[in-house]
Design a protein that fits this description.
alpha+beta; four-stranded antiparallel beta sheet; 43% helix; 8 helices
Amino acid sequence: MESRCENCIIRQFNSLRAMSKVELKKVSDAKSTRSIKKGMPIFEEGERLAGVFCVREGVSKLSKLSSNGKDQIVKLASKGEVIGQRSVIAEEPANLSAIAINDMDVCFIPKETIIDSLNNNPNFAVEVLRHMAHDLKEADDVIVNMSQKTVPQRVAEALLYLHQNYGEDKDGFLALQLSREDIGNVVGTATESAIRILSDFKKKGLIITSGKRIGIKEEKKLQNLITGF
């Protein structure tokens, strides 16, 4: 029963909460669940999507390949988020790739089910628009950060985002660990540059590291770095 959309608390975090019980039953009957291993794609940029994906467990990075062959991570999608909506609704190839950062469980909902609810349920259509507008706002913020903040400021911001949204593990390190390459792709810099900045943060006592793991040691000082104080 836990896998039925009608009984799933995850939908409270996304646009599916605006569906009626009848619509949720149709979604449940049509959907399928998939397990995605760490590092594997949910979908790739340029792919024609046959439906949307609701994240049940795990985290995915949404990234776009630039003209120079470098990935730019524009968003992290975690539990409760629906990805692929824009491409399905616009009937366009996926503008981003979605890759699992850790092992994931996702629900695949066929396109026809989503489109039918959009056409017949105004509340659901408005809810989908709200989520898409939120994604646009996040994209705007990424553009502003790229143009107005230094790379160290962006790295500090990325670390605090991971800390505030995903917390710490039992050892005091970030619960969601991004590779150095991914950190570089989040802030729009080379992996080598991200490594140097993290090393500098460690020397200054702002963070601690153990192998690939990173922990926040001086949250206030990182925040001051971001704001320029």
